[in-house]
Amino acid sequence: MVHFKNCLTVIRLDIHSNKPIILNYGGTNDISVEIRTPNKEEREIGHKTFNAMCDTFGSFPPTPRSLPVFEAIAAGKLPPENGQAKTVEDMTRTSGHHVSLDHYPNPFSGFIDKTANELSKYPKKAIKILRWRHAQQGPPSPISPRGTYFSFDKKNWFKVPDRTHVQVVTPPSSILRTEQVNENELFNLTKEEADEPLAHELYREAKELKFNNPRSCLILAISSLEIGVKECIHRLIPDSEWLVKNLPTPPIIRILKDYFPLLPCKNTFLGKVHPPPKKLLDTIKKGISIRNELTHKGTGTPKTETLDEVLDAVYEILWLCDFYCGFEWAKNHISSNTLKLLENSQ
């Protein structure tokens, strides 16, 4: 079990008492909210007594893929400053700047988003009711975050990384270091007919919808994959354009598994063309099943962790398509685990 403490400042809620207001909601996650005046330590670092402190506590069972990341943070390990840790094995840095949640593995950040969303419901309502019931004045939006912390024993607390922008997805990969740009390569790409594939544009749009509209995010992500695979086939077999556009398309899983190895790819793995690893195909199969449920019934919302897994799988396969189409550098955007599986395939 991982214990959380979500800390907020309530602006212009002046509590003239050392007795805190404690609301025990209990439930599966043992939620409680404590509203109080700043303590001595908080006042010494600048918190004003005319602002209240609001701490929300809860205990949540971590997912199998998020627990190792919690343990790594507690051990002082950090992800890369200039990129995203795909797995906990990428968290090897032990010094330097702390980075935003976007740099951490998706299963962990998805779990944090879900937990933070659950924890945030209680203090918002408690503060609204408290101010209404006791006619307290103050700004319309009085809540200011002070950070979220986690603990395994409720004694030693560790800071949970924050998102830079919760509602706007800007992946770490969008951080551009100009010294890494090959200007000649970039110039040549702009002069050629090469352009960002439509599939990547659609995937980017899907990512933007992740928090505000997860259902549309998943539907668009699967569509981007289907379009990306068709684009790949057309690039490698130009005469197939009419067939791709006009004939019924086999299921995307079948194309990836059975047809991809037959394509005349421009880049290969030791002379062989392999389909995406089974783990990615299984994730895509799950995503397609959820997409079909959403489009046929119009109900349900994908779980955050499932959505992250589908987005990751689509991302990897789109770059694999680009690699097979002749863009050698696309290989750099495929995770080391996936590359290892592809290189070791029989």
Show the helix and strand layout:
Elements: E1 2-10, E2 21-26, E3 31-36, H1 40-44, E4 52-60, H2 67-74, H3 106-133, E5 143-151, E6 158-159, H4 183-191, H5 198-208, H6 214-236, H7 241-246, H8 252-259, H9 278-297, H10 304-324, H11 336-343
Antiparallel strand pairs: 1-4, 1-5, 2-3, 3-4, 5-6
**Which residues sit in consecutive blocks of at least 5 with pLDDT less than 50?**
165-178
Please report the total strand number as a whole number.
6
How many domains make up the 3D coordinates?
2
**Largest sheet features:** 6 strands, antiparallel
Radius of gyration: 24 Å
Distance between the termini: 41 Å
Total helices: the number is: 11
Shape: elongated
Main sheet strand line-up: 2-3-4-1-5-6
Helix and strand content put the structural class at: alpha+beta
Give the proportion of residues in helices: 40-55%
- Which quaternary structure do these chains form? single chain
Q: How confident is the prediction overall: mean pLDDT?
A: 86
Bin the strand percentage: 5-15%
The helix-strand sequence is: EEEHEHHEEHHHHHHHH
Protein name: ApeA N-terminal domain-containing protein
3D architecture notes:
- This is ApeA N-terminal domain-containing protein.
- This protein has 346 residues and is of the alpha+beta class.
- It folds into two domains: 158 residues, no CATH class; 164 residues.
- Helix content is 42%, strand content 12%.
- It contains eleven helices and six strands.
- A six-stranded antiparallel beta sheet has the order 2-3-4-1-5-6, with helices on one face.
- Strand 5 and strand 6 form a beta hairpin.
- The radius of gyration is 24 Å and the shape is elongated.
- About 4% of the residues have low confidence.
